[in-house]
Design a protein that fits this description.
By secondary structure, this protein is of the alpha/beta class. 40% of the residues lie in helices and 18% in strands. Strand 5, helix 6 and strand 6 form a beta-alpha-beta unit. Helix 6 packs across helix 8. The longest helix has 14 residues. It is elongated, with a radius of gyration of 21 Å. The termini are far apart. It binds S-adenosylmethionine (SAM). S-adenosylmethionine binds next to strand 1, helix 3 and strand 3.
Amino acid sequence: MNEKQKPYLGNPQETIAVLKKYQFIFQKKFGQNFLIDTHVLDKIIAAAEVTKEDFVLEIGPGIGTMTQYLAYAAREVCAVEIDSALIPILEDTLQAYDNVTVINEDILKLDLRKLAEEKNQGKPIKIVANLPYYITTPIIMGLFEKHVPVESITVMVQKEVAARMQAGPGTKDYGALSLAVQYYAEPYIVANVPPNCFMPRPNVGSAVIRLTTHRQPPVKAADEKLMFQIIRASFNQRRKTLANGLKNYEGFHYSREEIEEALKACHLAPNVRGESLVLAEFAALSDILKGVS
Ligand code: SAM
């Protein structure tokens, strides 16, 4: 039997009551759009497959709406909130849950490896959040690049960003973000979420995406950093060929002949564009160019 209090936030009336009680003023600079739809909240928790075994990190709890759902479903929750005006509100809305810790900090400044070590003995954690959209990419890439042990990341993001994360070669949304995310994880768009599910309404569409971390990267590059530089260089100038992208990239000093030779060795046409290459081809190209530099 679960003796925990069922989540009561998640509808417009309760949210308005909390905001009024504390005379809370929304901070645009913190990307504050609070969820007011219980169906969406249920969908996020289901997609994240949160169980009583799990330690969950929530980024940006706001007034604690999703935190209540997480606390109800998980073993333990840690919620990191930058806005100190929300801390007394969270103390109130989360008082019935003894398995939640709130940290008043900037998520980008926190040592999340240490947190996973302390709270989950270094075992992979689940991350669930309605993200502040202005820092979606630094948050997600920071988790991957700093090798925080993560099992899955289930997050609300801007609809276009979700599409870019899931895109495959040859599509308009395919780019450096698609390749970076797909190197570390398997993306799956769970649901599209319209602006009326939030307060205040954002002026963009949203989507819930689940990123399930790979145990092993799907490709092997001798120099991961160089591979990602090549990826960035090839999408820097979208309308240009890959060869021109590499030639014009500030950090590179390859000659045109060296680039052409490398493309040939990878069985790629001299005028190939970055958007048609799959991750394995970027890995092969970076292995060859590594020998050149
Ligand atoms: N989880 C709540 C919900 O769904 O109703 C709020 C989500 S709101 C889109 C984003 C939250 O992230 C806000 O509470 C905001 O203050 C917080 N936030 C913004 N930047 C942050 C940062 N750098 N570190 C931690 N929290 C941040």
